[in-house]
Structures are given as C-alpha cells and as structure tokens.
Write a structure and sequence with these properties.
Length: 528
C-alpha cells in the first residue's frame, strides 16, 4: 500500500501529481479506517453496573446544540467510569465556563472540582453556577410533576395493574432496605403502602437507628430515600391515606407523625446534599508538575476529565493521571493541536529538561519525530464538516494570506507575537480588514493608502481558487495528522505499567464537534 500511495508524488520533484490517490491514502491512514478505536457502546456496556441512567434536566436547557451534545455524551461516560471505579470525586481540567462540571455534579451527584487558568472563566463559572443552583430545584420539580402526570394517566387506564406494580415496588424497596441494613437495626414494613393503601410505614425510633438510617441514605451504595420519595411523589393523590384520618387512634397518630418527620428530614437532607454538590470552580495553571493536593485540600480517589483541553494541557492531563496514585481514571478530549509544544521543532536554544506536548511516547521520541506548526494547524481542520457542505471560509483565508504579504513587504515583519483574531467578521471590506489588523499588530497604517491596499488585493485575486484548492488538500490530510497525535498519546499510556486498560473512543458526532476522540484509561485496581 505504501508503494502504491507513494506514486501520488513525482519521484524527482516530489510534487503532488495524483490528487485522487492522495485522497485515498489520507482516508486509508485516518483513525476511522485503522480499526484502533473502541466503540463507545462497547465501553459503556463493559462499565455497566446495577445503576440506572440518571433522570433530570437536558443540557440543551442551558447551552447551545454543540455543547449540549458534548456534555450529554461525555457526562454519561464519565459517570459510568466513576461508578465502575467506585469514586465520587471528579477533577475537570480546563473547565472553562463549567458546562461539563456543573452537569456532572447536578445530574450525576458527583463532587466536581473545575480547574481553569483563566480567572474570568472561573468567575463566569461561579455566576453560572449560582444561576443553575437557583433554577435546579424548579427543573427537578417540573420533572417530578411530569412523572406524576404520567403515573396518574396509567393509574386511571389500568388500576389493577397499577396496584400490582405498587406492591412489587414495595417489596423491592423492602428488600433493598434489608440488604442495606443487614444488622437488623432498621425494620421497614411496606415503605410504600400496599394495594389496600391502609398499611403505614413503621420504623424503630431509637436515636442510634435514626442515625444509621440517615448515614445509609447518604452513602454511595444507597439512593433509597430518593427512590422512596420519587415513588411517593408519582403515586396517585389518593394512594396515601391522610395521616390525620379520624380512624387512627392517638398512639398511631404519634407513631405516624414520627415516621413523617423522619421522611421529611431525610428528604431535606437529600435535597441539601444534592444542592451542595454543585461543583467548585478553581483558578490555577496546570502543568505536568502540578501538585493537585496544593489546589484541592480534600483530594481523594478520583477521576480526571478534560473536554477540549487546549494544546499541552491535554498531554499534561495524561501525565498527571499516570503520576498521581489518587487518580484512578482519565477521559481526555484534546483540541488546538497548533498550540502543542514540540520537542524536535526549532531545537536551537531549547531547554532539554522541558516537558513537551509532542511527542509523548518513547517510540516517537527515539525517532525524533516532528510535525511542525503547519501540519498541526492542518490537524485542526474539520473534514466531516466540509464533506457535508460546510465549506471553508475561503474569503477570510484569502484576506489573511494577502495581509501577510503586505506586512512582510511594507513593514518587513515576518514574525509577531500578536494575533489578528476574528477581525474578518467585524470588517466591512478588505481595506477595513487590513486597517483593523494593522492596529491589532501595532503597525502604523497611515503610511499605507487605500489604493495601495487595493493594489495588493487585485494582484492576488485571481489566485483565490488556488488557495481554496490548497486548503482542501490540507483538510483531506487533517485526519492523518490528528491520528499521529492521538496515537502518540495512546502509546504513552500503553507504555505505563500501572494502566489496566487504555483506548481511543469516538465520543461525538464529528459534524457537531470535530475534535471528537477521547483518550480513556483506567488504572490497575491494585495501584495506590
């Protein structure tokens, strides 16, 4: 295959002579074609335990379609991994505005620390967190009302079947309660009233028993109180007898009041616990040498996640994971490959002790492999979006290319630490674009008349089609460069002795979210 694909280039000049063969070669070496990815469905199936999926708000209530898709898919996977590893703490690296962190916390009851280097992001996350906390109970109430409405409809349609289901649920919850408190300290009889709706729950009233019940309700293994409360909330309104009914004597009334108070107390504690689980946004710059204990004082066995961590941050996330015994699993989706630092790029004056973003694995280090900035920039392009008709922004790319010629020829500038940014979208014409850009680059635009700017535009206008073709070739090649970066990270994990499993998983729809691959790993259970 390599011999066949090599004929896409001229042997002497090394110029591209067969575009079709070039495209076939690029497809052949893409991640989707190499067969190295583990399907998301297989991962979720392998991690599946006894817990059922969480019910609650949908992420599109609070975020755009792209972010909603990313958060919903990734949070389900993170929760599955956390349950499998038996952990409740999650560290979200590069958490930004806290979309993933807050959803993991509220929807899945995980304790999440979101760490971002930008204080403005952290402050924004705090504000967003405050608003979410304010509205969270309203969304929960709305969800419960919907469940209650559905239950009422089913009860009216099939009353006999509803009574049978009610009895089944009662027995199931009773079994759950007995398994949780196998010491026999708590006696729960029909937590949900039976089909006749005349039996009431009875509990031992000792202080020790009450303390055990509260502790059990808040433990990792039990969601008993929440299940009971949810069932009570969705039962028909007449399913539970009024506690003040006249046919109960005073002794029974006092006993029932105790039960009611305990249930109310449990409900209040569960609600407060849920609300207190809103995540903690922190501001800190993360490097490979970062000591998490200095940032998180109550660090425990946890999982580290990153949703579109930029540049070296994705690589450092994996390094921290392998180095810190408390971190039992990692799920990292990287982005911004052009910001990666490379060990073998422009080696003059480099510090040999520096930690680089690429390469990570020893195999590529031994070969002295280098991508280069142009290749890494290409890796950021979105082939799948182009394939469905979302074409490249040719005009803005053309503006940028001609601008570079102007600043080199007129100002003699070949490199700059400043960036033009999204100037194109704010510009009314090419002249306006050039003048805005020169100001951003802190170059004097007064010596450049409009006529001179337009001369450059006219000089290169006929080459716009060439630029588009060139960028289409870059788009076709993008998956091949991305696969090199991702396989480097996977190989790094494979080289570690404390990793039980690692793999690449396609998490997202690449049209919605082009950087769609996650690097996932779990440590050996014996590692500590």
């Amino acid at each position: 295959d390599d011999d066949i694909f090599s004929s896409a280039f001229c042997e002497n000049s090394e110029k591209l002579i067969n575009v079709h063969l070039f495209a076939l070669a690029a497809k052949y070496y893409s991640l989707s074609n190499l067969g190295v990815c583990t399907p998301l469905e297989d991962v979720l199936e392998a991690l599946k335990g006894d817990s059922e999926g969480a019910t609650g708000i949908k992420p599109d209530e609070f975020m755009n379609n792209k972010k909603s898709h990313e958060v919903q898919v990734m949070s389900e996977l993170v929760d599955s991994v956390a349950n499998y590893c038996g952990i409740k703490q999650v560290i979200d690296i590069g958490s930004g505005k806290g979309y993933l962190s807050s959803f993991l916390s509220m929807q899945y009851n995980l304790k999440v620390y979101g760490i971002d280097s930008s204080s403005s992001n952290t402050n924004g996350a705090h504000e967003r967190n405050r608003k979410l906390k304010k509205h969270w109970r309203a969304y929960q109430r709305r969800g419960k009302e919907s469940l209650k409405s559905q239950s009422l409809e089913k009860a009216n349609a099939r009353p006999v079947k509803n009574e049978i289901n009610c009895k089944t649920i009662s027995e199931e919850l009773l079994n759950n309660a007995n398994s949780l408190h196998n010491q026999g300290q708590v006696i729960i009889q029909d937590l949900v009233p039976s089909c006749g709706f005349t039996e009431m729950a009875t509990l031992e009233t000792s202080a020790e028993t009450e303390a055990d019940l509260v502790t059990g309700a808040q433990s990792h293994d039990t969601k008993l109180s929440e299940e009971v409360l949810d069932i009570l909330n969705v039962l028909p309104a007449d399913a539970v007898e009024d506690f003040s009914s006249s046919h109960y004597n005073c002794g029974k009334l006092r006993e029932e009041e105790k039960v009611q108070r305990k249930m109310t107390s449990l409900k209040s504690k569960a609600r407060k616990s849920s609300e207190s689980n809103l995540y903690f946004p922190l501001t800190s710059c993360i490097t490979a040498e970062t000591e998490l204990n200095d940032i998180i004082t109550d660090l425990e066995d946890c999982m580290m996640v990153g949703l579109h961590t930029c540049g070296d941050l994705a690589a450092n996330t994996l390094r921290i994971f392998t180095a810190k015994p408390e971190i039992k699993a990692v799920c990292s989706v990287g982005c911004c490959y052009h910001l990666l630092s490379e060990q073998f790029e422009n080696q003059e004056g480099k510090c040999h002790d520096q930690v680089w973003g690429f390469p990570m694995c020893q195999y590529l280090k031994d070969k002295g492999w280098c991508c280069g900035r142009n290749a890494r920039m290409s890796a950021c392009l979105a082939l799948e979006r182009v394939a469905v008709g979302q074409m490249l922004p040719t005009e803005s790319l053309f503006y940028r290319a001609v601008l570079q010629v102007i600043i080199e020829e007129i100002y003699g500038v070949t490199k700059s630490d400043r960036h033009v940014g999204k100037t194109f979208s704010k510009s009314s014409s090419f002249i306006d674009y050039v003048r805005r850009s020169l100001k951003k680059l802190e170059l004097d635009d007064s010596k450049l008349p409009d006529s001179c700017i337009m001369d450059y535009y006219e000089k290169y206008k006929h080459r716009m089609n060439e630029l588009e073709a060139f960028n289409m070739l870059k788009v076709v090649l993008a998956p091949c460069i991305e696969v090199l970066i991702l396989l480097d990270r996977l190989c790094y994990l494979k080289e570690q002795e404390n990793i039980a499993w690692s793999g690449l998983v396609k998490l997202f729809d690449p049209v919605k979210s082009p950087r769609c691959y996650a690097v996932i790993a779990l440590k050996n259970q014996s590692c500590s």
